[in-house]
Amino acid sequence: PPALSPFAHASQLLSGLGQSHPSIAFPQFSGDNPNLWKTMCEQYFQMFGILPSFWVPMAALNFTGSAAVWLQSIQKRLGEFDWDSFTALLATRFGRDRHQMLIRQFYTIHQTTSVADYIEKFELIINHLSSYSDTIHPYYFLTRFVEGLRPDIRAVVLVQRPLDLDTACALALLQEEVADGASRERARPSVVRATASDWSHRN
Predict the structure, then answer these.
(1) 94-123 burial string, b = 16+ CB within 10 Å, else e?
(2) How far apart are CA 77 and CA 34, in angstroms?
């Protein structure tokens, strides 16, 4: 019998499960973070029972933007690749520059607004970095996070000697709340004096 297309194979499997179509869209690849995309594809393939021989052609249908343009340049060779060699080629083409950019961001990021905003940006960077290597020691992330805090907040967090990143984030948020509260308290008397002065002039 003729081989099933990846879509027909997935459709038959889902029909047997009582589903008419995948409930999750296939991951799109635009050139950003090929390692993360590879992981998401493999989860999709396993979830819907896609045969390994269909992984490359199915994934190739979901390239967009600059990645789709690059794919055209190797389209005639696509049949030569299995999944491992195909994703290794993607990592070489798209992963190196992205990895270097993330490392630069990791070393230069500092708190410029709120602690919550800094935490969000910092965690986004380390999550992307972790997709390239899972051997980075957590203390490395902890140390860099504390170094990037606003000086007054950093000083207090350092004294507390947090053992992990979550604790350091909680301490930084708490210290920001305390510091901002103290600033508001210092500003309040001048406002009260100004209001009282205005009232006396009116009378």
Answers:
(1) bbeebbeebeeebeebebeeebeebbebbe
(2) 19
Tokens of 5: 């297309």
Name the nearest CA neighbour of 63 among 37, 83, 39, 88: 37
Task: Give the number of other Cβ atoms within 10 Å of residue 27's Cβ.
Answer: 16
Count of beta carbons in the 10 Å neighbourhood of residue 152: 10
Burial category of 155 from C-beta neighbours within 10 Å (exposed 0-12, middle 13-18, buried 19 and up): exposed
Residue 144 in contact with residue 157, Cβ under 8 Å? no
Over residues 10-69, the pLDDT tens digits come to 455 445 444 445 567 899 999 888 888 999 999 999 988 888 988 998 899 999 999 999
Question: Smallest Cα–Cα separation from 34: which of 92, 95, 93, 125?
Answer: 95
Secondary structure (3-state) at 175 = helix
pTM, to two decimals: 0.58
d(CA 1, CA 9) in angstroms, rounded, equals 13
